Amino acid sequence: MSKKNAISYVKNEPAFIQKFKENVGYKEDVDVNAKRAKMPDFDEDDDSPEKDDEKPMVVVLKKGDLTADEANTEQKVLDSKADDEAIADGKITFKKPEKRSSESTSDLNTRSAKKKKDSIKALQSNSKKVKDKKLLSFGDEEDEDDT
Predict the structure, then answer these.
(1) Phi-psi map region of 50: left, alpha, beta (phi>0 left; psi -120 to 50 alpha)
(2) Whole-prediction pTM
């Protein structure tokens, strides 16, 4: 039985895919950290990410408002904190999505129940209209002949 566990199969790529990868210069990433690396931006302005005239305008109305310089320093601090947290963990972690609170689920249930009731009432009112003989006056002559 140990021989069965030691057997592995490596699927060969078709020749046309190998040729395509050679022409393009494709190299496969081996480790997980290579997947985290940032993709290079292929913009025309590699040396300057944003020109000064394209940046948002900062308007200071009161003394407590942030100026442009303060906003830049705050953004740098936030970026460095996010990078430090990602590097400090060193592990890939997956978080479960948060469950909905009972209030939001009860709201959804009451809304769906109201919609169901409204649709049932609409169907019943439509069926009552069909049963009313006054609405179907063109069929009165045939009904009298049959009875």
Answers:
(1) beta
(2) 0.26
